[in-house]
Amino acid sequence: MSDDPIREGFGRRLTDAVRARGPLCVGIDPHPSLLMAWDLDESPRSLERFSMTAVEALAGEVAVLKPQSAFFEVYGSAGIAVLEKVIREARQAGALVLLDVKRGDIGSTMTAYAMAYLDEQAPLAADAVTVSPYLGYGALAPAIGIAEQTGRGVFVLARTSNPEGAGLQQSVHGSGDSVAQYVVDSAAETNAGAEPLGHVGVVAGATIHPGELDFSRLNGPILAPGLGAQGATVQRLHEVFGDALPNVLPATARDILRHGPTPEGLRAATNRVRDELTQLLNA
C-alpha cells in the first residue's frame, strides 16, 4: 500500500479486503505476559521485536491488524515510535490498520484526536480507529467527518465484550431502547445510503446475548472482539449476529499471539481461525 491519499471510502476498502483475505482482525497486543511467553523483557527493543514479528508474519495474510495503543503508550515516546512503524509497515504490506485507541471527547479536543489518527498527514494515521460515544454520539462528529473526508473509518463502542460494560450499555436510553441500541441506530443514520457499507462501524462483542441488538439498519461493519481468550467461539458468531454475519469482523489477539514467537506459528494459528470463519460464512 502506498502513501498516496486514499481515494475510496472505508466501507469499500474493508469489503474488498475481507473478500480477498477473509473475515479476520488480529490484534497486536504486546501485553507483558505475551512478551514473557516469547522470552522477551519489557523494553522498547522487545516491544519492537514482538510487534514487527507479528506485522511481518500477518500483514500480508489478514484483512485487518489492530494494534492496541495502550501497550505502546506505556513505553513513552519510544513506544509511540514503534507504533508508527507498525502502522506504516502493516499498511505497506496490504493490511488495513484499525488502531484501538477508544478516544472520546468534545469539541476541539475530539477534533485533535481525530487529526492525530485520521488526518492524511498524521504520523499515526490508521485506516480506522475505535471511539467511545459516552460523551454523546454527536460529540464524535469531528472524527466521523474527518474519517469520511480521508477515506477512513471509525468503530463506535456499542456493546463491548467486558462484563463491566453491561450495566451502562444495557440501560435504557431516552429513546426507549438500550444505550447500545441507540449507538447502533445512530451509526445507521450516518451510514444511510452508503455502498457497499458506510464508514461508521460499531463494536459489539461476540460474547453478547443472541438477539440483544438489532443490526438490520446499520449498513456498516461490526467489530466483534471476544474470540478465544474471552470465551466466544466461531460457531457462536452465527447465534449472536444472525443475518448481520456477513458484515461482522471477528477479532482475536492472544489466541493468535500465543503461538509465537515464530512467524510460522503465528501464520498457522491465523490460517486455522480464518478458515473456520470462511467456512461459517460460506455455509
UniProtKB/TrEMBL annotation:
Gene3D superfamilies: Aldolase class I. GO terms for biological process: 'de novo' pyrimidine nucleobase biosynthetic process; 'de novo' UMP biosynthetic process. The active site is at K102 (proton donor). Pathway: Pyrimidine metabolism; UMP biosynthesis via de novo pathway; UMP from orotate: step 2/2. It catalyses: orotidine 5'-phosphate + H(+) = UMP + CO2. The keyword Lyase applies. GO terms for molecular function: orotidine-5'-phosphate decarboxylase activity. InterPro entries: Aldolase_TIM, OMPdecase_AS, OMPdecase_type-2, OMPdeCOase_dom, RibuloseP-bd_barrel. Its EC number is 4.1.1.23. Keywords: Decarboxylase, Lyase, Pyrimidine biosynthesis. Residues 23-269 form the Orotidine 5'-phosphate decarboxylase domain. Belongs to the OMP decarboxylase family. Type 2 subfamily. HAMAP family: OMPdecase_type2. This is Orotidine 5'-phosphate decarboxylase. It comes from Saccharopolyspora thermophila.
